[in-house]
Specification:
The protein has about 150 residues and is mainly alpha-helical. The protein is built from seven helices and no strands.
Length: about 150
């Protein structure tokens, strides 16, 4: 990945404008707005948003849209669910490939070994290592129970 995420998103926004792709453009504008909100929040501390923070923002946006799509499907609002899932596809263009279940388990085992975790009390340290290395590549809600099982 030669370009940083912010540049890739900005370039995609320009391409969507030129192509008059309203759906993609709207999603890209939402991504930019979320990044700018985080920039403003961090400005107080003199920091700015980098790729790891953008990956976290994108991951959160995907999760929100998947939950919304599920709720719309349960409510019989399929057109709204489809719109949410279309936004997920646009957002996922900027996320690294998700780890398979086997890869995620191997990553958990490696993280446990790295921190020398021996009990459930070490779960926070293990999750910290995983979040540092695999932000945007794994669902930490699904990985938490795996860590718990390994340490429990």
């Amino acid at each position: 990945m030669t370009q940083d995420l912010r540049t890739r998103i900005t370039d995609a926004l320009k391409e969507a404008m030129k192509a008059k792709d309203a759906a993609r453009l709207g999603t890209l504008r939402l991504i930019n707005a979320a990044i700018k909100d985080q920039d403003i929040a961090l400005r107080v501390d003199g920091k700015s948003v980098g790729d790891p923070e953008i990956l976290a923002i994108l991951g959160k946006m995907v999760k929100q849209r998947q939950e919304s799509a599920r709720a719309y499907e349960e409510g019989g609002r399929l057109e709204l669910a489809e719109r949410e899932l279309a936004e997920v596809k646009v957002i996922e263009d900027f996320l690294p490939a998700q780890l398979s279940e086997t890869e995620a388990e191997a990553a958990v085992d490696a993280a446990i070994k790295d921190v020398g975790a021996e009990s459930i009390r070490d779960m926070g340290r293990v999750m910290g290592v995983l979040k540092g290395k695999y932000t945007g590549q794994m669902d930490f809600g699904a990985v938490g129970p795996i860590v718990k099982t390994r340490l429990g």
